[in-house]
Amino acid sequence: MKQKLDIETWNRKEHFLFFNQMEEPFFGVTIVVDCTKAYEKAKELGISFFSYYLHKTLVAVNSIENFRYRIKDNEVYIFDQIDASATILREDKTFGFSLIEFDENLYEFAEITKKEIERIQTTTGLFTREYPENLIHFSALPWVNFTSFSHARSFTWPDSCPKISFGKMMDENGKKTMSMSIHVHHGLMDGYHVGEFVEAFEKLMNS
After folding, report:
1. Cβ-based neighbour number of residue 21 at 10 Å
2. Distance separating alpha carbons of residues 109 and 91, to the nearest angstrom
3. Which residue of 9, 49, 65, 142 is surrounded by the most CB atoms within 10 Å?
4. Which of 207, 180, 204, 205 is nearest to 194 (CA)?
């Protein structure tokens, strides 16, 4: 479900109109996340770490209203729920775009994720199903400890989905960390909202 945001009464109307006209309206940040407790918790619960931190990502995304905004035909809509389209690697080293629906229950979400990964690994090509608008674009690069990140984008294709990527997990003196890249549409949010998301995500990873 979604509802249209009244741009005329929105306190970010001028910001939206300014950034929405740009060829590249996205901005991004890269941070380092402490995942020591989260990794231990996932092992304790018997859940894959990928499913665990993807779940925490979506919990944080859904808790920040601006991360649930999407643009369609120059109108802004607020979605009730945001799911994930994650890139899933196959044995032949190609990947496909998945659709992993959010569930607040971690165990249910882990099962949804497992089934979608299995489905992708039996398909070919990039696009393997219909994809809704209420998504984040999600990817993991477990081979690279990156310090910055960029995305391939077509400026002629309308896109307002946040893009969140994780790097290689590093272990130093028992402390586990990962790089995390967050790219968002500046017409829909500012650095403040990204900060809100990061704070919510880090709190979930350390709970």
Report:
1. 10
2. 23
3. 49
4. 180
